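In the design runs reported in the main text, the only information available to the sequence generator was the tokenized backbone. The following block is the verbatim input for one such run; it is reproduced so that readers can re-run the procedure and compare outputs position by position.
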């Protein structure tokens, strides 16, 4: 069986990219098709045979947002006639590829295009930007709904995303949770809390910074992104930015933290499981994928409202909470690679039958 993978763009590192590496384990010979590829920002993609679209030759191609209106054409231009199965991993245009009937297409959906649907108000907070972008957004919404009908089957990364696929695309889907590597590496916690995240607005890192400024507790933030300069200006003396770290370096910070702080409303949230695999609890916003990965009172604690008061209250409550590290590790084991492999391959077998 000849398999190809599709992903929106290769210019960052995060949970979605870990999903691609898991699929690479299942299909090591599968080429990876994408709109643009920045080798400096995505060194992890060296393991793939990467096929880029015509956008790769455009000026400032890796600034993909400049060419949002051309993304449909970029993915529609690929030819998959030689493949039996194509798996698109996407939160945007990757699902729009065109395949002939003999080539099956599974969309492993990270979320329906966030800036058009569930995250529209967050992305277009500026009233002038909202007005100026309206014609392009209307066109992209129209096109996105058409493109969403092309996959033969949808697999959602969480129940949260499954609901969005139904709501925005009127498509059924099954849930196959992404996998993590179980660490079995526990050591005594030090005094700091931890965030591991891309630094973009919808991750709500600013909320955590304000809460830790108020509490004057140590917080270490791992990750990079467009918001980094603004967030650094907000941060008080107890907050440290560590930038991008390798997985080997991450081990030390995960294993040494008191708890992971997860302030945003997320599609799934792999870092929640990564922290638990080290036996560490999570303080998370009560919504989105966190509801599927944190057991309240056993592997973590929720805060109910996306504001400073609710988060600071949860952090104070956490001081009185006794968490068994083994409970966290056992929860993480439910999402190991073997479980992912079994569930994902079952969906493929069902489709090909």
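Verbatim output:
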């Amino acid at each position: 069986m000849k398999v190809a993978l599709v992903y929106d763009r290769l210019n960052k590192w995060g949970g979605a990219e870990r999903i691609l590496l898991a699929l690479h384990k299942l299909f090591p010979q599968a080429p990876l098709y994408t709109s643009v590829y920045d080798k400096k920002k995505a060194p992890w993609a060296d393991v793939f045979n990467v096929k880029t679209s015509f956008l790769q030759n455009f000026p400032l191609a890796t600034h993909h947002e400049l060419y949002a209106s051309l993304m449909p054409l970029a993915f529609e231009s690929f030819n998959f006639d030689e493949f039996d199965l194509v798996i698109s991993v996407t939160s945007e245009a990757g699902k729009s590829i065109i395949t002939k009937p003999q080539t099956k297409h599974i969309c492993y959906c990270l979320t329906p295009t966030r800036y058009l649907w569930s995250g529209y108000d967050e992305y277009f907070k500026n009233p002038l930007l909202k007005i100026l972008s309206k014609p392009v957004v209307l066109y992209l919404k129209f096109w996105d709904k058409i493109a969403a009908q092309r996959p033969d089957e949808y697999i959602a990364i969480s129940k949260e995303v499954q609901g969005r696929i139904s709501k925005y695309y009127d498509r059924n889907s099954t849930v196959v949770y992404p996998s993590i590597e179980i660490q079995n590496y526990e050591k005594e916690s030090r005094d700091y809390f931890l965030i591991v995240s891309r630094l973009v607005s919808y991750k709500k890192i600013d909320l955590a910074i304000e809460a830790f400024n108020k509490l004057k507790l140590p917080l270490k933030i791992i990750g990079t992104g467009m918001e980094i300069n603004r967030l650094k200006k907000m941060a008080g003396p107890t907050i440290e930015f560590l930038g991008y770290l390798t997985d080997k370096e991450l081990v030390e910070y995960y294993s040494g933290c008191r708890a992971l702080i997860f302030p945003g409303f997320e599609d799934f949230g792999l870092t929640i499981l990564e922290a638990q695999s080290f036996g560490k609890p999570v303080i998370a916003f009560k919504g989105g994928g966190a509801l599927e990965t944190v057991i309240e009172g056993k592997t973590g604690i929720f805060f109910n409202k996306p504001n400073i008061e609710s988060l600071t209250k949860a952090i104070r409550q956490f001081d009185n909470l006794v968490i068994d590290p083994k409970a966290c590790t056992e929860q993480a084991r439910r999402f190991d690679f073997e479980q992912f492999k079994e569930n994902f391959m079952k969906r493929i077998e069902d489709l090909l039958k």
